[in-house]
Amino acid sequence: MVLGGRGQVGKLLVPLLESEGHRVVVASRVGEVSADLVTGEGLVAAVAGADTVVLLASNPKSPETVDVRGSENLLDVLESQHLVYLSIVGVDRHPLPYYQAKRAAELMILDSGCPHTIVRATQFHSFVEWRLKSWCHRKIALVPAGYVFQPVAAEEVAGDLARIVKGPPGGLVPDFAGPEILPIATLARTYMTAKGQETPLIAYPKPGGVAAAYRDGVHTNPERAVGVTTWATYLRDRFGHWPFQE
Question: pTM score > 0.90 for this model?
Fold first, then answer.
């Protein structure tokens, strides 16, 4: 059973598992099986008969309800199923409230006694692009100075989850990180050039603990740069060309 099967990773994972012969059920408020993580309604019936439950559902805008309360509600109804949970690299050190909610969910799973595997991934290429869209406006691009990201392909994370589903519970497994750590200025300049945008780039100092964590790269892991798809490849596939020398 997959909770969050219509999200960015879920829509890649479900057909991948099905192609390998697994019977996959997608559970959501509007899914194949009706289940609500926040209220707990329908969860008992949804997990009945499942050997493995993959928890991908998440909501950065309401993490205390979806990520924390939802994980708690799910753990209350699980018996001996293998729970696979997708988390984020650095949630145990990053002060961003969303990351702290993911860490709270991790701790509940670790303490539950439920057979589980937790895999942490770095930010997806599409997430980095989404952030850049909000920073790189038509007339000027304002980015927080010193930020770094280690973008990873959602397809590769889905493939790793498919491998985990077929194996035994592994607890907190090694991170799955992208192939390169890049400064925000490089990401922004290449993104704008790839889409034909000519905009002045200004990096401004952003105060606070969250900004410091993004500058320090606590959400990256250079020792686990196991991803293959680079930012350049993503941009080339996304925009149909790549004007830079790789």
Answer: yes
